[in-house]
Design a protein that fits this description.
- With 106 residues, this protein is mainly beta.
- The chain has one domain (14-103): predicted glycosyltransferase like domains (Thrombin, subunit H, Beta Barrel), CATH 2.40.10.220.
- The chain contains no helices and seven strands.
- The protein has a six-stranded antiparallel β-barrel.
Length: 106
């Protein structure tokens, strides 16, 4: 079986909004890292593995992290959950990115 290299991770804290596909309520989170295939974020709540979610990642300019440059709207699913006891009291969720689109304010 051929080795498939892991996608490069970018350790860039970012604002994340997310929700399950079944609920209208959006939750605020902090992104820990992201790649072309997924994102790791502090969700603040435990979500079952396999749950389909929608995410908006707020990308910022490195020199001015308080300014959002663009939002990436994503659809994916939860692939791993680290429970609050193992992560300083905050649930951490790893989610795949199955689809995405770039949204910019004009």
């Amino acid at each position: 079986m051929a080795h498939i290299p892991r996608a490069q991770r970018f350790d860039a804290p970012m604002r994340v909004r997310w929700r399950t596909r079944q609920t209208p309520e959006w939750f605020e989170a902090v992104g820990l890292n992201a790649s072309r295939t997924g994102v790791l974020f502090q969700a603040g709540r435990v979500v079952p593995v396999g749950t389909e979610i929608e995410l908006t990642l707020a990308l910022a300019w490195e020199a001015a992290p308080w300014i959002d440059v663009a939002d990436v709207n994503c659809v994916g699913r939860v692939v791993r959950v680290e429970t609050p006891g193992a992560t300083n009291g905050v649930a951490v969720v790893a989610a795949s990115i199955d689809q995405y689109s770039l949204a910019r304010d004009s």
